[in-house]
Design brief:
The complex is a heterodimer of chains A (275) and B (260). With 275 residues, chain A is mostly helical. Chain A has helices at 3-30, 32-56, 68-102, 105-110, 115-119, 126-143, 153-178, 181-184, 188-203, 212-219, 226-236, 241-268; strands spanning 62-63, 66-67. Chain A has a two-stranded antiparallel ribbon. The chains are: A mainly alpha (275), B mainly alpha (260).
């Protein structure tokens, strides 16, 4: 591929993301009530979880080697994973299942844009992401005793990259869960299941709490541990951050390739609703 | 009465159009239990509390079952009421020759039929893991379950009433549900709560929704103080239902239907 072609592809994708963000922003500010409702709900969830962590640590000093303070950082990363995953990935995946189910995908496929990229980036809820995520995550930030945490700058940088790779892997996992809609006509509950596995494994149990086989399975085949458990472990220096970085990078790379292959396969099997 | 059974049956059968979705629902419940057991096994190892893994697993299985059966955890009835009001479809039910709340309750039961079946399986597995010590435990379980149903029913109606006053009350509803999960003992058994909070919660309606029925079947159940718990539960069951229905009737009078 020539450099100019590559530039043109990048430019087109940038324009799609720009248009998607603008469209999502207009939609989000049109229903201000929803934003407030989301803020209230997310803040209540966070406060209830902070209460839960306090109750749990009323009877113990550590869980799987994590102190109360470590667990709060873990919860902070889990919340970031949730908001990133929901507003950048899950909304689009849910829309994809609805489009296939109702036959709207035909319209998308006729557009002169890369379909896969468009479908997975057409609704980026940036505004709601910040509005809803800010108050609850701030509550966690103020609950953490930061000076008591031993976080090195190297581990922090590795942690940020692991988080990004984890978010990509988690997105692919949920995207694959949506594809049965091409054959079955519906996959909402399958997507919910995938999202639930991601949330369930990431919000309560630190990486060190899982057995080795489970760490492997939930870090590769079902890559739901990476964005939260791997990140927290790397940032806190509980496991070698370089090792976790490499692991997360390889899984994300494989995940992106699988996503493309799976999409091509699904599209070949798509029986259009209108033709 | 037959018409409500028909509504339940019809709403339940709709779910069978997509068998893979049923499998996903069942798998979701299994995953939920697996992670719960995993977390508590780690917690028991770390904390050294005097509760065994089968005991805590049985508690959560029964608690989840009770929460699903009585709709105290996920508020299926309030969610349905909310959706119907928000979309304006509630007018369709108002003009039908059925009573509004029983008809909506029947739809919620039918649509969530699979959850209810799983709830019963949960309770059965919980009982198998930790059989109750005496028949008295079973008797108290049934009494507390009926009480839990009464409180949860009122709680669903109260939440549903919110939708008659706000354009979108799902945020408020979700906020309430997040705290309900903690205070009812659905996430942590109340005996693990710090002492002042535990004592305060005892006089609230929350323990009656999940904790008391689930704990009555556990081996830690003691008859001491059970009369007071039951009395508090009955008080809240009656009071909340009276409050819920008076608020619902009052709010429905102000409801402006679309298209009529």
């Amino acid at each position: 591929m020539k450099l100019s072609e590559y530039r043109s592809i990048l430019k087109q994708r940038f324009e799609i993301v720009q248009a998607s963000c603008l469209f999502a922003f207009r939609k989000e500010v049109a229903y201000a009530g929803n934003n407030w409702a989301g803020v209230i709900s997310a803040t209540a969830y966070t406060l209830s979880m902070l209460l839960f962590v306090n109750i749990i640590f009323g009877n113990t000093k550590q869980i799987a080697g994590y102190s109360h303070n470590d667990m709060l950082l873990y919860f902070y990363v889990a919340q970031l994973t949730y908001f990133t995953n929901w507003y950048l990935s899950m909304i689009n995946i849910h829309e994809l299942t609805v489009d296939v189910n109702q036959g709207h995908l035909d319209m998308v496929l006729t557009k002169p844009v890369p379909a896969l990229f468009y479908l997975t980036s057409r609704n980026i809820g940036g505004f709601r992401f910040f509005v809803e995520a800010f108050p609850p995550t701030l509550a966690i930030v103020f609950s953490i005793n930061w000076p008591a945490l031993s976080i090195s700058p190297t581990n922090l940088v590795y942690g940020i990259f692991i988080f990004i790779f984890g978010a990509i892997s988690l997105h692919v996992f949920e995207f694959l869960a949506a594809l049965p809609v091409f054959w079955l006509g519906e996959s909402e509950n399958i997507v919910d299941l995938a999202g639930f596995i991601g949330a369930g494994s990431g919000s309560m149990i630190p990486l060190e709490g899982f057995s080795r086989p489970l760490q492997f399975a939930l870090g590769t085949i079902i890559p739901v541990l990476i964005s939260t458990a791997f990140t927290a472990s790397a940032v806190l220096g509980k496991t070698s951050s370089r090792f976790l970085f490499l692991w997360a990078f390889i899984i994300a790379l494989i995940a992106v390739i699988i996503r493309k292959l799976a999409w091509n396969f699904a599209i070949k099997n798509y029986t259009s609703a209108s033709s | 009465m037959t018409v409500y059974f028909d509504i339940i049956r019809f709403s339940f059968l709709r779910f069978f159009s997509y068998p893979f979705e049923i499998i996903a629902t069942v798998l979701k419940r299994i995953v939920e239990i697996v992670f719960l057991v995993l977390f508590w096994s780690i917690y028991i190892k770390s904390s050294g509390i005097s509760v065994s893994l089968p005991q805590i697993t049985a508690y959560f299985l029964i608690a989840m079952g009770v929460a699903d059966l009585t709709m105290s955890h996920w508020g299926a009835l309030s969610s349905l009421i909310g959706n119907q009001i928000k979309s304006g479809h509630i007018s369709n039910y108002i003009i039908k020759p059925t009573k509004l709340i029983p008809a909506l309750y029947a739809i919620s039961l039918g649509r969530n039929g699979m959850r209810l079946i799983l709830a019963l399986i949960n309770i059965a597995v919980g009982l198998f893991l930790m059989p109750p010590k005496t028949p008295t435990s079973l008797l108290f379980f049934l009494l507390f379950l009926i009480n839990s149903w009464a409180i949860s029913f009122a709680y669903n109606i109260l939440e549903g009433t919110l939708f008659l006053h706000f354009t979108d009350a799902f945020g408020i509803r979700n906020s309430i549900q997040n705290f309900i999960r903690i205070f009812t003992g659905a996430m942590v058994p109340l005996y693990m709560f710090p002492s002042p909070l535990k004592e305060i919660l005892r006089f609230s309606p929350f323990p009656g929704m999940v904790y008391l029925p689930a704990n009555s079947l556990s081996s830690a159940f003691a008859l001491n103080g059970v009369g007071l718990d039951l009395g508090i539960g009955i008080f809240w069951g009656i009071t909340l239902n009276l409050l819920a229905f008076s608020l619902w009737n009052h709010s429905m009078k102000k409801y402006e239907a679309i298209g009529i």
